[in-house]
Amino acid sequence: MENAKSRRWMLCHHCHKLNEANDDEHQRCCRCRAPIHMRQPHSLEYTWALTIAAIIAFIPANVLPIMTISYFGSGSPNTVLSGIATLIKLEMYPVALIVFIASFMVPLGKIAGLIILMLSVQRPLNIDPKQRILLYRLVDFLGKWSMLDVFVVAIMAAVVQLGFISEIIAGPGATAFAIMVILTMFAAHTFDPRLIWDKEQQ
Questions:
Q1: I need a labelling partner for 174 at 20 to 30 A (CA). Which of 54, 82, 146, 191 fits?
Q2: CATH fold label, 41-201
Q3: 168 has which bridge partners?
Q4: Residues in a beta bridge with 180
Q5: CA angle, residues 101, 104, 106, in degrees to nearest 5
Q6: 75 strand-pairing partners
């Protein structure tokens, strides 16, 4: 099966024009003059680095308090998991399930998906390339929605400010959570999905 690489065609990521590859190491697009490459340089290295950093940020994002809800001057900080436990105690099971999926399972699933994609390129894994492409699209799609928790905390902290009666303060866990989400978004962006098909050509 032939592909663009075997035919020595390179796609410009800026204007999306196909360029015929030459021997120039610093080839530029013939239309917009942007630098072009057959594959994104150091794609796996950048993706591994960003994914490992996201794993590190995942720990404080779930251990540190994400926000503190204060009523009449008293309140206790809540982490993501303690907030889910509180919702379960209040018998708000649907809300607890949504928070658990959006705040815990989705970020963890994105990190696991990125690791599977990178290992499938570097090692022989018995996974169909079409399934890997679907996994990549899912990871890329979920990236923008993972910031929902951070937006909710930011909006609540800005709106619910009733002085001594009620106050919501964002905690360091929210910062760690935002950093983790941004790192996974960058990791999905730096991963070149064409490497999956290059592996099949070997």
A1: 191
A2: Butyryl-CoA Dehydrogenase, subunit A; domain 3 (1.20.140)
A3: 69
A4: none
A5: 60
A6: 70
